[in-house]
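Forwarding these from the shared drive since the link keeps breaking.
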Amino acid sequence: MSSSISRRDFVAQSGSCAAHLALAAMAMPLAARLAWAQSPTGRVVAREPFGSLEKISDGVWALVSTPLTGDSTTVSNGGIIAGRSGVLAIEGFNKPQGAQWMATKAKELTGKWPTHVVLTHYHADHANGVAGYQDGVEHPVVHTTDRTRELVMTKNMPADAARATALTGAELLSRDTATTLDLGGRTVRVIPRGGHTDSDVTLEMDDPNIVFCGDLVWNGMFPNYVDCVPSKLKTSVHAIRRSTPETIYVPGHGTIARVADFDRYAAMIDEVERGARAAYAAGTPAADAGASFQLPPSLGEWVMFSKTFYPRAFEAWYRELKGA
């Protein structure tokens, strides 16, 4: 890894998904990391060492984070959705500076500081910086499920009193039914799902057709299975997929996805399932089966891949199959 980032500090401060990305970066050539960082889909309205903010529709922007270049300010992707009366910021990011930057950009682009913030799940790179939205004057409503809030408060390190304060007053999302946020002439559905963690949500719009997927979807890189319940992940991924070909999918990590990218990701996790189920039935240890597993060439190259990730995915499947 580049000397501009300490792997030990990155992993310790950022949680399991950031650790996953840190390990991937170690195996990825610098040229490939830089090329991936320069692959915008929409019009870039702001570019920083940690990522690029892209306009993907009128009043909708997506942040594509590029932590593999060495800056862990945000780590996860996120977004801004603006209506006439409200502005929604998606994700709390890895550090408060990331959330503060996103809020400042929202103000520049829409004339408003975010009125709402949604966390898609508890992992540190999506939640630890949420206090950055509170600037002493502005106090947007933070939306999260009760389970996500509980996990952030009990598992995420390092502990942060400001983060705890921001989450104490959060408006809790239902874990059973969709919540509709009215931003004034534009509505966003926050839909409870699961699979990547015990409590994930997606943010979905119909006009334009855009889905902010959280870490249920990764584009161009192998996902983190550390907290995964693979069958629930599969169910959620297939539920997210829309029939409208122009749908834009903003993944939790990686560049913005279109339908072909989404379908390749779905096929990849289905292939992992087939391999894991076959190995489990044959009695092959998960570590051995994962170490020898290979995706078919038809699924293309997963450029962030490290061989340690397949065994982790197989272990997640084995846990579930043993429980069943």
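-- next protein --
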Amino acid sequence: MKLPGRTILLLLACTSAISAPGVSASATYPDRLIEVVVPFAPGGGLDQNARNFAQALALVLKQPVAVSNKAGATGTLGLQAVAQAAPDGYTIVFTPAVPLSSGPHRLKSVSYNLASFEYVCQVFDNIFAIAVTKDSPYQAMDDLLADARKHPGKISYGSSGIGSIPHLGTSNLENASTVELNHVPYKGDGLMLQDLLGQRLAFGAVLASSITGQIQAGELRLLAVYSDKRHPAFPQVPTLTEAGIPVVQLSFGGVLVPAGTPANIVAKLESACRQAVDSPPYRDWAQRANQVVDYQPGAMFKQRMQQDSAQQFTTLRRLGLEAE
């Protein structure tokens, strides 16, 4: 039977769609190397976390997984690169929340937003803390706040930079406690810790897991953590809320892919993410590094990101740091 020309064209169109590269790649995903972008410099805690996660992910997906660092502009350059990448599941980003939940509110140069990504999974929590030296007169948060009220604007603290999680969290602490502190921003924690150990700062607002060595050596003590739960490695340290200060500054992160990535690829990555996070090698590394593992599926990760974005916007607006 001779088919009408229009019917033949429709059949050819359907055949082409079925055999199109995007469709076949989606069906066989993954069949080649996957790139994991880390939006910060190599050597830091996030980079180590990403590399251990990538090793576990490669074993689950049975494909090579390579980590590349795209640092700059407090993580936003790396996220921008991934937002513009092909939505095929072969370029993913392993990131803390702040470049996405805070960056678009703070920097005019950022062209992505919450809708620029698909949310694969949450992998970790970063718990920040208030650290003092072993000789500090502050034994608890009450001591620090009492001194701050006696000397408004004179109590200096260090953070990893303006707009960083510890800066925003401490600003919320000031607001909730009606005290005024002197913020000294640094380009990372290294120089800040030198000044803290040299007693040129009253306290440091710092990632708790990054100062495990100094805590174990007795050089630093923790007064409180900014999270909604105690750090499992330091269970004796209260949260700010437990210390009577109604402030919670969460820091978490995980895996994103560009918006438009096919749903079946996102689902496969989400399943692989859960298996990688649960794998003994990754769990063993996290325990040694005092890294808090907190897997959440993509829907929950997205919800937390939306909530964090709203909180960051409120704080940035109060500080006059929002992009105009």
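Residues 1-23 have pLDDT under 50 and may be disordered. Residues 159 and 266 are 35 Å apart (CA to CA).

- D.
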